[in-house]
Every structure is written in C-alpha cells, then in structure tokens.
Write a structure and sequence with these properties.
Blueprint lengths: L9 H5 L7 E3 L2 H10 L3 E6 L4 H11 L2 H10 L1 E6 L4 H15 L6 E5 L5 E5 L4 H17 L1 H18 L11 H13 L17 H14 L2 H16 L13 E2 L7 E2 L2 E2 H18 L2 H18 L7 E4 L2 E2 L2 E2 L7 H8 L1 H10 L26 H18 L7 E6 H21 L5 H29 E2 L2 E2 L2 E3 L2 E2 L6 H18 L2 H17 L32 H16 L2 H20 L5 H12 L2 E6 L7 H9 L5 E5 L20 E6 L2 E2 L6 H7 L1
Parallel strand pairs: 1-3, 2-3, 17-18
Antiparallel strand pairs: 2-4, 4-5, 6-7, 8-9, 9-12, 10-11, 12-15, 13-14, 15-16, 17-19, 19-20
Length: 678
C-alpha cells in the first residue's frame, strides 16, 4: 500500500501512484521494518530535481522494481526540503561512503535507521542488481552489514561533531579568505572552478563587503565580472528573469533548468548590492528582473513564496526555454528574428539538445542608445508572450520558512535601495522598476505575515506549509536564523516594533534549544526527533548553514536592540567556523559575510524624521551604509524601535545618529555631514 496520497509535499505526491509501497518518514515505517526483519530503503529527493524524475520513471514506476522493493524492503520517501535534518544525516553518510553526494539519494539502512550502503542515482538495471545484492547480504551476511553500518555512524558522528577548535574571525583571516577565492577564480568566465558551475552568491556577497571594508579592487572585480557573466549567460532567464540552479558547462551557457527560491533570493541580494556600490545599469536591471520573477512566478497570494520551478516540462528538460533561429523568425518576423538571433546567440547548430539554443545576451545593450534598448525590450516582450503559450514547468508550491526568510531579506534590501536611489533613467524603464518594486514589496509583506501567523505555532517555528496549512516538520536552525534575519529586515523597513519582537523570540528559542557546547549550534533542537546522529554542519553550501544564518540574525538583532549578549553569542559561534574559513573559503561565504559586518561594527544608523520614505538623510544612509549596517528611520521615541529611543530632532530638523555599539557620534542634519561620518 502506497501511503503518500495524503502527503503535503509535492515531491511525495509525485510518487503517490508508484507500484512501490512507499511510507513517509515516520516511526511506524521503521517499526514495520523491525517486524518484518527487512532493511529500509530511504530515497531522498525534491520536486524540481531532474534526475529524481529520471529515476522515478525508470525504476519507481516499474512493476518489477516495485515487487522487489515491496518483497524485501520497507521503502521510505523523503522530501529533502521538508526534512533537511534527515537529508543532512544521510548525505553525510553518502559522501563518507562514496566521496560525493547528490539527489536522488539512495540509502539502505537497518531498521534502526543506521545506514550501511549509500549512493545517488542508479539506472534501472543497476538498481535491480543492487536490490538483489543488498537483500542477499542482509539475509546471509547480517553481521558484516551491521558492522559496516556502525562504522558509518561513527564516521558521520565525527563529521557532524561540535566543540572543535575555535579562533577569532579576524580581519587578517577574512583578507586571506578573499585571497583564497581569488586563487580559484575563473578569470575567463567568472565564478569558481569548472563544470558544473553554481552561482557563488554567498561568496560574492562576502567579496562585495570585503571591497567595502578594504577598498580591494580585486574583490570588487571578481564579484562584478562573475555577476555580469552569469547575467549574460543561459543560466539567467533572458526573458522573464530568474536564475536556474546551475550551469552544466563552465561558461554559464546551458543551465540545469530548475529555478530555486533560495538561489534567486541570494542573487537578488548580490545584484542589489552591486548596483548600490557601483551604479551599474546591468546590476540594476538584473535585480529588478529577479525581484519580478520572485513576485510573479513564485509568490503565492495570501501565503509566501513557492520553493521552485521544475527542471522539466512534460518530462523534457528545457522544453519551455530553448529556441531555434526559425522559431525566432516565426514569432518576430524576418528582420527582428535575425536581430534577436544575433543578440541572444541563437544559432543553427544550437547550444542545447536537438539544435536548440538557450538564450544568452551576446551584446552589451544596457549601455546602448535608447533606440536599441527599446527594440531589445520589445523583442523580449514578444518572445515572452510566445513562450507563455508553450507548456510550462511545474511549480513546487510548498512554502519553506528559511527560504522565504532569505527572499524577504533580499526584497527588503532591494526596495530600500530603489527608494534611496530614486527610479531615474528613461520613463518606460523607470515605470517598470517602480511597478516591480510595488509588487515585490507586497509579496514580501505577504510572506512575512504568513511566516508570523502560520509557521509560528506555540512559539516554535515549523519548516513548511502548503495551501495555507502548516506542515508537521519542525523548523531547523536555518529556519530560525533566516526568518529572524528577515524579521529584523522588516523592522528596519517598516519601523514596526512587532517584527523586532518576533525576531527576538526566535533567537531566544535558538539559544535555548539549538546551542552546543563551545559556542556552536546543532541544526536540530534538543527536543526534536532523534536521528542516528544530531546534525551540526557549519559549512555554507546551496544555502547558508544554520550556524551562519543564526549568526547573521544575532548580529542584526544585537545592533537593533543594543543587547550585547546576542552579539557575544554571534562572536562565539563565528569562532567555531573561523578555522574552516581559513581552509575552505568557498564553503563559508555567508559566515565570512557576517564576519565583515562584525568587523565594520556593524554601524547602527538612526534617522529621526517625520518622512522616512522621502527624507534625503534616509536615502543617503541606505546608499552609503558600511557592511552589515542597520538603518532605522522614524519619529523620535517611536514605540518598539530601540534605535529611535532618546534621539530627538535637532533644532526641529530631522537628524541622523551614526553609532557603533550604541556609542554615537554627534547627530547631523545634512547629507554631507552624514557621509563624512560614514
């Protein structure tokens, strides 16, 4: 009996009609394995995963595979996005056994959950042989199998250990981390390493802050070049905005087409900050387009942001997105079709399967004259209208707390910068930017309210919801960190005290329930379900680690409230990551980003004014704030806003107070004086 029909996870629902007798992750599944004395198959994936679909079609939809599984195993299906704790434990085991990891993840375990054989994708013939071999080994070599499982658990327990060496995260260490990144930088194509190439969003955020602190031209150039290369590449949707998960080549040409909320949230922060620091029109446009993608494609009205768009459309990867020269001519006519083929590098041989091409921006049009930009924007509109008539990829509609937190923080930064810079530019583009900002702001507020009212249950955070109904999985550390940081961003944007109060409640829970000896944190709460090990991964990978996320929130909250114990907790946690920053800078980007904020202060900037949206002091503070600074504007002594307490107007005029550690310089009333202090 397949038990997935009532699941809330879209990924589990994709498997609800399989001939496999799937169980969701639950105690009853392991009890059934003990009763039958059979091993457990734990299959982990997610709804937008291409190779998960391939293995499903080849194996899990096959009756012969289903019979072997049902006769000899208890099969458990796990959505890694709903249960990142389960995923983390078994991914560590998979990497320990095979040297690599990925999804779908295929784990064979004893009835107590102890893994003894791990892998990722298996073609059907290999998978059939594997099922037979594992079943035979379980029946005939049980003692050896259990010994191997015990060794794996011992190994992954050490890999997830807390309480290791610590060191201060100093300026010298962060300078060395920037130098490490420069050594691995692809000077031809941007980014780091070779194919497959993932958007290094957290490393770019770190490099932009490092440039702000040090003036390093190299850090800025690495970030600028990589951002431009990605923006021009096929990994960026040239028509609708939004970035795919990764490029299968080192040139950013052909993406793996799934679009993830977390990637686009973090990339929105990158392009927003690049625009803030440089005024680059490409960064401005891409930030606008990513914000529009989040608001138009992933926002669920009355809820939050959906998790992802699928890699496949009707089982075919790229079906929605790729073009031939003839298709461009069919939509645009002969002249515009040929012009678009040149602009977007669409060729007869193609860059993708079947002579198709993924659109890339082969010409510099952001700085072109208005006529060229007008033609480009008209072509984009017409192609997008035609593409909208094609079959579209499925959307994973579940709302993940941590990823929504990342999106809220990113949109808050984008909205603040648009308000600070003004829309400017030509009228049509200015109108588009203003419209996108209004829609994105509404989606952000919608998501924040959803997290505050649906995901917070009895003071504890839940990981997921769908269709307005909160799921059972408990929030993990990254949820508490990303959502608390988002609530701090909402407090700064709105001046409402309730967001700061909500953030403080989440951080108090994290300190009480997730803290580990020696300043670190576990990824699961002390009263969460006990797995074969308690995960505590300090490295930043596709998303910030739970530890980096909670540190970012602690730093922001401490700056907004002046409560030093939160800063002390942040510094102690960063000290547990510092030795990893020294050795593996590519996998500690968010920790290093927060480290730059701590080195900077971070600055606390309070602007007392009756016009927070239009006061030039507020705009100057947003545009020129040092790394990680918090900025709050509003009336003196505004309730629930500690930064505005006891800070009066100066001679009846608005004033800015620039502080570090709640030690303030003299208040200033002109933009020039404020910039001098910053």
């Amino acid at each position: 009996m397949n038990r997935l029909a009532t699941a809330t996870s879209p990924y589990l629902l994709q498997h609800a009609d399989n001939p496999v007798d799937w169980w969701p992750w639950c105690d009853e599944a392991f009890a059934e394995a003990r009763r039958r004395d059979v091993p457990v198959l734990i299959s982990v994936g997610y709804a937008a995963c291409h190779w998960c679909h391939v293995m499903a079609h080849e194996s899990f939809e096959d009756t012969a595979v289903g019979k072997l599984l049902n006769d000899g195993f208890v099969a458990i299906k796990v959505d890694r996005e709903e249960r990142p704790d389960v995923d983390a434990v078994y991914m560590t085991a998979t990497q320990a056994m095979t040297g690599q990891g990925g999804w779908p993840m295929t784990v064979f375990a004893a009835p107590d959950g102890t893994p003894f054989f791990c892998g990722t994708y298996f073609p059907k013939p290999n998978f059939l042989r594997l099922l037979e071999s594992v079943g035979t080994a379980w029946r005939e070599q049980r003692e050896a199998v259990l010994r191997q499982g015990a060794a794996v658990v011992e190994a992954i327990g050490g890999a997830q250990a807390v309480g290791g060496p610590t060191a201060p995260l100093t300026a010298e260490l962060l300078d060395d981390a920037a130098a490490q990144l420069a050594t691995g930088y692809d000077r031809s194509n941007g980014g780091f390493g070779g194919a497959p190439k993932f958007p290094p969003h957290m490393n770019l955020l770190f490099l932009l802050r490092h440039h702000q602190r040090t003036g390093s031209a190299e850090s800025l150039e690495i970030a600028r070049h990589t951002a431009e290369a990605m923006a021009r590449g096929g990994i960026n949707d040239q028509l609708a905005g939004g970035f795919a998960r990764y490029s299968v080549d080192e040139h950013w040409t052909v993406p793996h087409f799934e679009k993830m909320l977390y990637d686009n949230a973090l990339l929105l922060r990158v392009y927003t900050q690049l625009w803030r620091l440089t005024g680059d029109p490409l960064a401005r446009r891409v930030a606008r387009d990513v914000a529009r993608f989040l608001a138009d494609e992933l926002h669920r009205p009355g809820e939050g942001f959906a998790s992802a768009l699928d890699a496949d459309t009707e089982g075919v990867e790229g079906l929605t997105y790729a073009w031939t020269p003839a298709q461009l001519v069919e939509v645009l006519g002969e002249d515009d079709g040929r012009w678009a083929a040149d602009l977007f590098a669409v060729t007869e041989p193609g860059t993708f399967e079947g002579g198709m091409s993924v659109l890339r921006l082969a010409r510099d049009v952001d700085d072109a004259d208005p006529a060229v930009r007008g033609r480009w924007q008209d072509v984009v509109r017409r192609l997008l209208a035609a593409r909208d008539t094609r079959p579209q990829p499925a959307r994973d509609d579940k709302v993940v707390a941590a990823w929504n937190g990342l999106a809220i923080t990113a949109i808050a930064e984008f909205v603040r910068l648009v308000e600070a810079r003004g829309v400017g530019d030509e009228e049509a583009d200015a109108n588009l930017l203003e419209g996108v900002t209004i829609v994105a702001d509404g989606a952000m507020r919608d998501a924040a309210e959803h997290l505050a009212t649906v995901h917070l249950v009895d003071g504890r955070l839940r990981r997921v919801s769908r269709d307005g109904v909160v799921g059972a999985p408990a929030g993990v550390l990254e949820d508490y960190g990303c959502v608390a940081e988002a609530f701090c961003a909402m407090h700064q944007l709105t001046g409402e005290g309730r967001w700061l109060e909500l953030a403080g409640g989440l951080l108090d829970t994290a300190l009480a329930r997730f803290a580990a000896p020696g300043g670190g944190f576990y990824d699961t709460a002390d009263d969460a379900e006990q797995l074969v090990t308690r995960p505590a991964d300090p490295t930043d990978n596709a998303t910030p680690s739970g530890r980096s996320a909670i540190v970012a929130a602690l730093v922001a909250y401490a700056a907004l409230t002046g409560e030093n114990r939160y800063r002390e907790a942040a510094e102690a946690a960063l000290a547990t990551v510092a030795p990893i920053v020294a050795r593996h800078a590519r996998f500690t980007g968010y920790a290093a980003t927060v480290g730059e904020a701590l080195l900077s202060g971070p600055y606390e900037i309070a602007v007392v004014t009756d016009d927070p949206a239009g006061d030039p002091l507020v705009a100057a503070a947003y545009r020129h704030a040092p790394p990680g600074a918090v900025v709050v504007a509003g009336r003196p002594d505004q309730p629930g806003v500690p930064l505005l307490a006891d800070r009066p107007l100066v001679d009846g005029r608005p004033a800015a107070y620039v502080c570090r550690g709640f030690v303030c310089q003299r208040p200033v009333s002109t933009v020039d004086d404020l910039l001098a202090q910053l």
